[in-house]
Amino acid sequence: MTIVGLDDTDSRERGMCTTYLAARLAEAVVDAGGRVDRKLLIRLNPAVEHKTRGNAALALHVDLEPEHALDLATAELEPLAETADPRTSPGVVVADDDPSDVPEAVSTFTRRAIRDFLEPADALRVADDAGYVHRGWAGGRGRIGALAAVGAWAALEEWTYEHISYRAFDRCGTPREVNTESVFDAAAKFHPQAWDTVDREEDEPVCVPNAPGPILYGIRGDDPDAVSDLAARIDSESIERSATFLTNQGTDVHLREGTLGELRDGRAYRVDGTVASDPETRRGGHVFFDLEARGDADDSVDCVAFEPTKRFRDRVRALRSGDEVTVCGEVSDGTIKLEKFAVRSLRRTVETTPTCGECGRSMESAGRNQGYRCRDCGTSRSGPETVSVDRDLDVGWYEVPPCARRHIAKPLVRGGFDAPTHPER
Ligand code: ATP
Q1: Whose CA is nearest to atom 25 of ligand 1?
Q2: Is 366 exposed, middle or buried (0-12, 13-18, 19+ CB in 10 A)?
Q3: Distance separating alpha carbons of residues 117 and 96, to the nearest angstrom
Q4: pLDDT digits over 16-75, tens only?
Q5: CATH of the domain at 311
Q6: pTM value surpassing 0.85
Q7: Could you tell which of 14, 21, 51 is best to mutate to test the pocket of ligand 1, judged by most ligand atoms within 8 Å of the CB?
Q8: 54 CA: nearest ligand 1 atom
């Protein structure tokens, strides 16, 4: 078996998309008499600054000879890659290996590319040691992602699907013609096998991208038939080609277990703690709170729900100091950008100044450590009153809505969480 890894052919301003190149290459392989067993769309560390948008890399599992596959990839890539953009740095890596049995160093490289930062030299060393052929253009940084995609089938356990429909290439840059009502109807029919197709509250067809490029829409889900059947029900402008990819989207594979006090920028974590300040909405509508380690106020971190996470911010605003939570998100400038959180326990009481049993008015402090008294009635109390508070949250997981989901983040509707879930749709 031959594995062809591809990455970094895309430009933020000019469009293109490496998935499109992979879809075309898959057709070229078949035209050359070959077979394509799988098409993989792999999301790598979302914190990487070189990314164009979603830090995707692609791999095809084919039965052509490696040199032949590299020639076909080169022939497809050279006319399409946006190498005039100084940020675009394409790479192709071709492996003569069984996809489920690549060298340990290659699958380790994939896991690191999803959770950490790597250098082009790391990719070249691992690819050369494994005897893989590779080519780079304009620096060839894309070989990092290409090698990571080569190792993905061996490195990862959990897979989802995305069916992508592409528009005619010469229409790229013009407004997309997609009948929104047909998208919402189809999304309702196939939910939850297909997820994140629309955001019902925001009334947004999130499967239709805004960026320039050849993707008309992408349907994500747990079942390959559901995503393509859903796509078939969407009324739109003509579709030039389509492809269904196996992906690590919606799996949370970017998250590592973290401990407060040991978090590092550019990595994404799942971390337990206690809410240490009531949430505060700052300029721009971003909501912040402080999270501290249970029983150790010295280790703490800021958490933020940004404005684009929309109604998720109401869930975050409903947290109170003293709540025990697990938060998930990437650390950037020392702040966790929240993707989801779980309430483990809610603080249900607060201590307040007591009221007088005789007159019902608020008592006053009788002095440091001397309790409270009512000046009018002469009554006294040794300490504050404990009153219960109504809470607007329940124990369990809360998440950003589909319109704000990161590609790699796992929607609650997929299940498998360690507490009740409160899914958005
Ligand atoms: P495209 O559609 O072109 O793939 P994209 O949003 O996926 O767009 P790229 O243009 O591929 O982003 O840019 C990501 C770049 O970062 C690639 O060159 C890739 O090799 C590199 N890269 C990916 N993961 C890592 C990592 N963990 N550490 C360092 N570089 C990485």
Answers
A1: 113
A2: middle
A3: 26
A4: 789 999 999 999 999 999 999 999 999 999 999 777 678 999 999 999 999 999 999 999
A5: 2.40.50.1010
A6: yes
A7: 51
A8: 6
DSSP, res 414:
G
Which residue in this structure is represented by tokens 């799996």? 251
Ligand 1 atom nearest to CA at 112: 27
Task: Determine which residue's CA is closest to atom 18 belonging to ligand 1.
Answer: 142
Kindly report the CATH number assigned to the domain that includes residue 222: 3.90.600.20
Assess whether 143 and 283 both reside in one domain.
no
Instruction: Please state whether the peptide bond connecting residue 205 to the residue before it is cis, i.e. omega within 30 degrees of 0.
Output: no
Ligand 1 atom with minimal separation from the 57 CA: 4
Fill in the amino acid letter for 117.
F
**How many residues can be counted in the chain?**
425
Locate tokens 């206690």: which residue? Answer: 274
DSSP letters, 332-359, are ETTEEEEEEEEEEE---EEEEPPBPTTT
- 367: Cβ–Cβ under 8 A, 6 or more apart, which residues? none
Q: In the beta sheet, which residues pair with residue 133? A: 94
Contact 320, 389 (CB under 8 A): yes
Give the domain range for residue 362. 349-388
Pocket residues: Cβ below 6 A from ligand 1: 7-10, 17-18, 44-45, 48, 50-56, 89, 113, 116-118, 141-142, 144-145
Q: If you take atom 23 of ligand 1, which residue's CA is the nearest one?
A: 145
Residue 363 DSSP symbol: P
52 CA distance to ligand 1 middle (Å): 7
The pair of structure tokens assigned to 157 is: 């356990």
Cβ atoms of 303 and 336 within 8 Å: the answer is yes
pLDDT tens for 170-220 read 898 899 999 999 999 999 999 999 999 999 999 999 999 998 889 999 999
